[in-house]
Target: Type 1 glutamine amidotransferase domain-containing protein
Amino acid sequence: MRLEGTKVIALVEDDFEDLELWYPVLRLQEEGATVDLTGKEAEKTYTGKYGVPAKSAFAFKDIKADEYDAILVPGGWAPDKLRRYPEVLELIKKMDESRKPIGQICHAGWVLISADILQGRIVTSTPGIKDDMKNAGAEWHDEAVIIDGHIISSRRPPDLPAYMEAFVGKLAGQ
Model:
């Protein structure tokens, strides 16, 4: 398994896009990574847009970025909530400063915008937040996946295979 010993944070909040959380989590686990679901509260069950539950193992305040290799931000409506937590923005900033992989799909770009890390970056997202991404200083493209250094971005659920191929490849050093 290519990612044995790798630790990844997966952010969770109510109204996450079910596939955009669970597909990446399961793919990373298949590769041997440990993925810690992390929410505002530990041991809380959050519900996706389509009713799929996700129980957090940790609270944002209990996670230390230097103990992890990467972070995933799912889409859906959860990013609009996630970007309001100072602890989430701090995690994103620290991962960015350390050049650790940051995966964002669909509306997850909102979290990176609020963390103020997109200036000069090349990204994609759901077209619905294209203007937000551009206004944050990013160069936006309508592509299935874009890798700009340590930031891996994708548009929507049909792009998940390409997104996870890129994210897993980045973590595996390919």
Notes: The helical segments are 18-30, 78-82, 86-97, 109-114, 130-135, 160-171. The longest helix spans residues 18-30. The first strand starts at residue 7 and ends at 11. The mean pLDDT is 98.
